[in-house]
Design goal:
Radius of gyration: 24 Å
Strand order of the largest sheet: 1-2
Number of helices: 9
Distance between the termini: 79 Å
Shape: elongated
Order of helices and strands: EEHHHHHHHHH
Structural class: mainly alpha
Number of strands: 2
Helix content: 55-70%
Length: 188
């Protein structure tokens, strides 16, 4: 491939890597592989990343999710999509978080067996948070309500119910902060 100028040698300190000079050539080579070869290749790549970055996998969660998805290992793909989504929410990468959690839910629906409602509720909660941060209150409220239903809690039906619960929580927190000795038992 190097002789016909389709790849180039990219040297690093420890190893030699060959890269395709054009994405189309890479895609043609990839599409010529059998599906079983692709799955095996993606699994080996994911396992390499896990070994190479064992000390801190967080930066490669999206890469691991991608390769395990392509390797058709849905359980591991879902785990890494969840971790990537949680990390994205923490880093205010809300569009990415939405994408990760939607992919995780799509894979989870395809798995046989029972789904974990608390895990799904957490995903919907994170989606609600991400949509809220993007200034999209409608989808945010829908996802938070789905999370509440999965946790067997009844979501408020009207805006005034949300406001009432918010004001009640504010009052309780204010009382706790103003009169801590009333609410906290003293050692003794």
């Amino acid at each position: 491939l190097r002789v016909v100028d389709l790849t180039a040698l990219e040297s690093h300190a420890t190893e030699q890597l060959y890269i395709f000079k054009h994405i189309i050539t890479q895609q043609v080579a990839y599409n010529l592989m059998l599906f079983s070869q692709r799955r095996g290749l993606h699994r080996r790549i994911a396992e390499w990343y896990e070994g190479e970055h064992a000390a801190d996998l967080a930066p490669v969660y999206p890469t691991l999710a991608h390769h395990y998805t392509k390797a058709e290992d849905s359980a591991k793909a879902i785990d890494y999509l969840e971790k990537a989504g949680e990390r994205a929410v923490r880093n205010f990468a809300n569009e990415e978080a939405i994408s990760f959690f939607n992919q995780a839910m799509a894979l989870d629906e395809k798995l046989p067996g029972r789904r974990d409602p608390l895990r799904s509720a957490a995903w919907y909660g994170h989606l609600g948070e991400a949509y809220y941060a993007l200034g999209k209150p409608g989808p945010s409220l829908d996802n938070v309500n789905r999370a509440l239903v999965l946790m067997r809690r009844r979501p408020p039906r009207f805006v005034w119910q949300h406001l009432t619960r918010l004001l009640w929580g504010l009052l309780v927190q204010t009382l706790h902060r103003c009169f801590p000795t009333v609410f906290v038992k003293q050692p003794g």
